[in-house]
Amino acid sequence: MTAAPARLATYRALARQLRVDSIRCSTAAGSGHPTSSLSAADLMAVLLAGHLRYDFARPDHPANDHLIFSKGHASPLVYAMFRAAGAIDDAELMTYRRKGSRLEGHPSPVLPWVDVATGALGQGFPIAVGIAWAGKRVLDAPYHVWALLGDSETAEGSVWEAFDRAGYERLANLTAIVDVNRLGQRGPTELEWDTDAYAQRIEAFGWEVLAIDGHDLDAIDEALASAREADRPMAIVARTLKGKGVSLVEDREGWHGKALKPDEAEKALDELGREPSRTFEVAKPPEWSRPSFARRTFEPPAIGEAAATRKGYGEGLAALGRARQDVVVLDAEVSNSTHSEDFKKEFPERFFECYIAEQQMVAAAVGMQVVGLTPFASTFAAFLTRAYDFIRMAAVSRADIRLSGSHAGVSIGEDGPSQMALEDLAMMRAVHGSTVLYPCDAGQTAKLVAEMADRRGIVYIRTTREKTPVIYHAKETFAIGGSKVVRGGGSDDKVAVVAAGITVHEAIKAAEELAKGGIKVRVIDAYTVKPIDAAALAGAAKATGGRFVVVEDHWAEGGLGDAVLAALAEAGVRDVRYRHLAVREMPASGKPAELLHAAGISARHIVDAARDLLP
Amino acid sequence: MTAAPARLATYRALARQLRVDSIRCSTAAGSGHPTSSLSAADLMAVLLAGHLRYDFARPDHPANDHLIFSKGHASPLVYAMFRAAGAIDDAELMTYRRKGSRLEGHPSPVLPWVDVATGALGQGFPIAVGIAWAGKRVLDAPYHVWALLGDSETAEGSVWEAFDRAGYERLANLTAIVDVNRLGQRGPTELEWDTDAYAQRIEAFGWEVLAIDGHDLDAIDEALASAREADRPMAIVARTLKGKGVSLVEDREGWHGKALKPDEAEKALDELGREPSRTFEVAKPPEWSRPSFARRTFEPPAIGEAAATRKGYGEGLAALGRARQDVVVLDAEVSNSTHSEDFKKEFPERFFECYIAEQQMVAAAVGMQVVGLTPFASTFAAFLTRAYDFIRMAAVSRADIRLSGSHAGVSIGEDGPSQMALEDLAMMRAVHGSTVLYPCDAGQTAKLVAEMADRRGIVYIRTTREKTPVIYHAKETFAIGGSKVVRGGGSDDKVAVVAAGITVHEAIKAAEELAKGGIKVRVIDAYTVKPIDAAALAGAAKATGGRFVVVEDHWAEGGLGDAVLAALAEAGVRDVRYRHLAVREMPASGKPAELLHAAGISARHIVDAARDLLP
User: Fold this and answer.
1) Could you say which of A540, B50, B282, B593 has the lowest number of CB atoms within 10 Å?
2) Cα A385 from chain centre
3) What is the arrangement of strands in the sheet containing A528-530, beginning at the earlier edge strand?
4) Apex CA A137: angle with CA A134 and CA A141, to 5°?
5) Rounded to an integer, what distance in angstroms lies between the CA atom of residue B304 and that of residue B186?
6) Active-site residue flag, B358
7) CA-CA distances (angstroms) from residue A417 to A229, A553, A560, B32, B397?
8) What angle do the packed helices A157-168 and A124-134 form, to 10 degrees?
9) Exposure pattern of A438-469 as b/e (b: 16+ CB <10 Å)?
10) B235: which strand partners?
């Protein structure tokens, strides 16, 4: 089957224009990746003019296809597409990479037609998997998801997590277009033009694969048509030339991430042919609305006796699932440990098993919030470190996702340091706009889960493996940003102990011990580590003359202690007397209580530190 | 070919003992993963008694094979192997998971026969690739590397990065043994017993694959023999039963990570047969010594004019390469940006291209230090977030590795936030025992590179994209843990500005501006962010009455500001007046100077903040 001549002529004209505009905007900017744009221009021209269904006037149309530039450095190309679709005008195109422009060096959702930020390779594609998965499983949506990948980025393991997930779930609404232009940043890629090797690998992960010449408009047209019709995900492995169409740079090394100089660009435009850029028609999506998600009041679970906060998380999630149909839950094959299984048992259709692929899990969560769902993703807190690049980029994507990390700190006991999160508070505090929660009581945890649902940005909750006593009344409420004074609170408190999670219980024991000696201690449950309750800290400073013990089951750097000091300094509280109890030596295995003690963060150490601070 | 009956009998006896001891030690501990140990007991019995060449009395023997339990939760099995090899006695075996025992919940190098810590899945295997790569490329070593993988962990993308790397490099000295026991933590794995699917995938990545019955001792024997002889890496995909040999748990769900109760264990031992555990013979490695690496004095490169610190890193590395033959360099396909290419050009044989696979890069570095090399690994600092779990675990492994992250902060300019590291200082500070360096001058950077070589633990250096002025004399020296006063220094300084990297230059401009108004400012170049120079900070506090401006091209959390406050608090410095200039809004694209200004961390903002603090 060959495309009609008129159709082909349109593709050809659009491809030419995409090349020209990619060069024009990057040359004007003086930087960018024109050659990586040129290799994929034919692929994207055929997609835009022949297969994409997208209403650029209504970027929030729920039936719009999704186009994810996983190779985000080809931003000149995607912006040229927006210009060709009439979404932006030529003047805006020429603001590329300038201060104040929406056209950033790599695409980000400051543009309404961009779902997520890309530019860290190997991320857009796993996010596309999440969008497709939600479309198939939860929404029954008519949209198709198209991901443009670079060949270099297939070196990222996350790409294979994505191929695996989509292949296993038979996400027929997903197409991966791999631009095999043979050249990476500093020279040839590993597989160069061995499209058979790509095909063999991708097929082995359960995909249908078509290997084509990525500059043959007819072949592209046919491939994209069959991709939409396929009954499983399809990859189009397209052999291309980097810099295609401009002899100065075509298939040449040394031209990655480099704009043509103005005189070079002029010659390139001569070569490509000069015609004024124009608007091309793009097919509209069908009329379709997302299912409306019922909501009712959240009823917190009743947790009467000692329970682990991770169990509170699970029960809170299940209760939230009852209250809100937009809530979806992902887990990395440890749902019986994180207790997200409590949700899964009630709402299996809204539970997404990601197996042990934390990067794909976070990416899928990002994808699901693109299409209006409210995702919660959980694993051991230690293993969220695996997905830190994805979490960082989720913030650049302005994504609203909720992460739960269980098994925090040395208090997990016998499993040893590989399973102990001791850096997660630091990692999560240093995410732009993040919220970091660390409750100490299972009922409190369940209530905070409900608060997380409407919180913008990256919201993290840290939970504990061990059972902890119930310290809050069933009617107590917890706002994000708040804290609770759980012992003391009078103006005659001598020392403030700031704790969170497991150490709150140690602090209470310490306060009771000190009370026997007539020493009044204010114990603050800093269940919001970020934004920390600065007012409560300032109040405690006033009462105690600035005497603080901070105790945390975390390395000394970047966690609760740093948060407290920063808040006090920011609030202008001077004259602080400070003792910081944190984990400072590599832990080993042992019983939880033994390890808390060995790390110097048990009640005994709090008592000593508080005494040490007394006037 | 069938193994001789005596050989088979030995295997059988050893396999039985490994099963028994796996159960005994985990039941005594009351926790652990006996069923994951039982599935691989036959594989490991044949390996230990028939194929491994390892002198357990000389764990530092350079020709010893390397055995990496990538499925680290099967620790009862590896400890039972050590007991069978006579490396530990029965009494020690029974201390498993107790406080003070070397036999931690997951293996770690507190035991001399363990190369690296495992327990975070998908890490041991990529590290094994590093050991094999060094053995082939640098050492020409006779050792063979055996990695035992679980089937669940093949969901981790890092495992495919490792298959890719080893396949591409044809590491014939590496064997992956995949224990396909069908059951993950909370139920069946994705591929269950589809060993064909495993084989197809692994073959597509350039490996030879043998699929066998993992309980057929003869088949295992033959597979391991051919693995050592293969001319490329071989994977043995072994179909096994989780809990094999104990009917209570064999192939049963709900038994992951669960010890048998004492009465259940008694029945299991009855079923397996009761014989006293004994010592088995293990083949010794051939006599062989590592090549000795020549060393001469490090001659720092002459850097006369403005240059980027990333360039200082590259030139420093090349100079270090001249001084020390044990130095090896890895990069994730951006060596022309990180400037590790300066080393590569001179020492291509000691340069390891990892393509865009940051996890594999860090894992390979960990592997290379196992065999006595001194690895430096570099990429954009933002993309080191991709490998955070590996960096965290490298600390648990007590590994000595050096990481360089380039393109830090908003000062990279036009490429935008996806490429800007703004969380790396927080991330790296929160690694146990880490060192964090952040120089501001290319010559200083080169000298610090030399200091990094002998530093223990995880040593990180953060570099800048833009050229910065030379501010230090060619003869200046820089110790890790130190800082430099680059403006002011007298007892009449009114304010201290603590800066690092790009902001040092802004601080100098600010100090010069303030000097015009007669205001003396002490500018501290805190080139060691961890361990920060607490004495210099205390001294500055004394001179200035505790007036500090901290300015950093990093998010406000977890970086230089938090480090300074923590050091002052720790040192008992009270009465601190503090202004913190850091990145607080999501940056976009723009020119470096524009972005520094927009983020509020330029000279102008430092001047304002300093003025604000004046008495």
Assistant:
1) B593
2) 12
3) A351-353, A327-331, A374-380, A401-406, A458-462, A435-437, A528-530
4) 65
5) 61
6) yes
7) 49, 12, 20, 14, 10
8) 20
9) bbbbbbbbbbbbbbbbebebbbbbbbbbbebe
10) B176, B209
ipTM: 0.98
Measured CA to CA in angstroms, residue A410 lies from A2, A422, A469, A552, B41 at distances of 65, 8, 18, 10, 30
pLDDT at B1: 56
Contact A356, B122 (CB under 8 A): yes
* Amino acid sitting at position B140: D
Contact B29, B96 (CB under 8 A): yes
Note which residues in 416-445 of chain A have CB less than 8 A from chain B.
Answer: 416-419, 422-423, 426-427, 429-433
Q: Collect all residues with Cβ–Cβ distance below 8 Å to B208 and sequence separation of at least 6.
A: B230, B232, B233, B234, B235
Q: Is A159 on the interface with B (CB under 8 A)?
A: yes
Kindly report the three-state secondary structure assignment for every residue of A326-385: CEEEEECCCHHHHCCHHHHHHCHHHEEECCCCHHHHHHHHHHHHHCCCEEEEEEEHHHHH
Q: Residue A260: CA atoms inside 13 Å, Cβ hemisphere, count? A: 27
Q: What is residue B408's three-state secondary structure?
A: strand
The span from the CA of B478 to the CA of A465, in Å, is: 44
The two tokens of residue B19 are: 């099963």
Kind plus residue range of the DSSP H or E element containing A67: strand A66-69
Average pLDDT over residues B551-556: 98
CA distance B346 to B328: 12
Q: Is the pLDDT of residue B174 over 60?
A: yes
Token couple for A475: 């009617």
Rounded to whole angstroms, the Cα distance separating B445 from B447 reads 5
Mean pLDDT, consecutive 10-residue stretches, chain A (615 aa), reads: 86 98 98 97 98 98 98 98 98 98 98 98 98 98 98 98 98 98 95 98 98 98 97 98 98 96 98 96 97 95 94 98 98 97 98 98 98 98 98 98 98 97 98 98 98 98 97 97 98 97 98 97 98 98 97 98 98 95 98 98 98 93
Is residue B609 scored above 80 in pLDDT? Answer: yes
Confidence (pTM): 0.98
Residue whose tokens read 């497709």: A132
Annotated catalytic residue within B156, B315, B358, B451: B358
Tokens of B393: 């675990």
Q: Nearest Cβ partner of A72 from B101, B414, B418?
A: B418
Q: Does B242 touch chain A (CB under 8 A)?
A: no
* H-only helix segments in B347-483: 358-370, 381-384, 388-396, 424-429, 442-453
Please tell me the distance from the alpha carbon of residue A150 to that of residue A184, in angstroms, as a whole number.
9
For residue A138, give both structure tokens.
């939860």
Instruction: Give contacts of B 524-553 with A, CB under 8 A.
Output: 530, 546
**Residue B263 corresponds to which tokens in the numbers above?**
């009465």
Q: What is the CA radius of gyration of chain B?
A: 27
